[in-house]
Amino acid sequence: MAPQKPETFMLSTEAQQALPHDAQVALQQVDNLKYFLISAPVDWQPDQYIRRFLLPTGEYVSCVLWNNLFHISGTDIVRCLSFRFQAFGRPVKNSKKFEEGIFSDLRNLKSGTDASLEEPKSAFLDFLYKNNCIRTQKKQKVFYWYSVPHDRLFLDALERDLKREKMGQEATTVAVSEPALSFQYDSSQSLYEQLTKTQQANSSSFSAQQPAFPPGQSSSPVMRNMDAMPRPI
């Protein structure tokens, strides 16, 4: 059973299968990005410091090795999310306000545990700037690669806009195509909570369908949710 995706978990199986070809291609491109976000730090050459992924938008997202740790910039996180909203059928129309919301969420990721706080024009920021990973060399956090809950950030940004629309306010993104047009918002609980429950239900169903294995044998494949983590405090 395929894991539920943040972009389509609110749709029925029939609705997911009936998505237009363009929407299916776009969601496959999101899967390609997610694979990069999982696998980028693997199998580097001894003298390698950066690995890039070309988004369909024409922008690059970079995994950067610095001080023996893998990093991603806030700018690249926003690029990932902007692309995901576009692929979802809800492109960004107010970039400034959209970015402000993402960077506000990123404040939950703390220096030292989730990110490196870099002083203005540090050697690291200079490297990132020269490689188009950041737009400015002002003091900022650069995030540890696996500390960033990408799905959670997507859902929280989507929920903010859906709430704005429900209250008659201007959203930072606008639904123009599927699956966004068919996405039904239930405001009784957060989107992330709804996704987590759906994933847990599917995981339980998956486990119940698996044959029993003798001790010492593994029931592969093991299902793992990349962003199944509590909100950082």
Automatic annotation (TrEMBL):
It holds the Pfam family STE. This is Transcription factor Fst12. One of its GO terms (molecular function) is DNA-binding transcription factor activity. The keyword Nucleus applies. Residues 199-211 have a biased composition (Low complexity). Signal peptide: none annotated. It is found in: Nucleus. The keyword Cell membrane does not apply. Residues 196-233 are annotated as: Disordered. Keywords: Nucleus, Transcription, Transcription regulation. One of its GO terms (cellular component) is Tec1p-Ste12p-Dig1p complex. PANTHER family: PROTEIN STE12 (PTHR47427:SF1). Belongs to the STE12 transcription factor family.
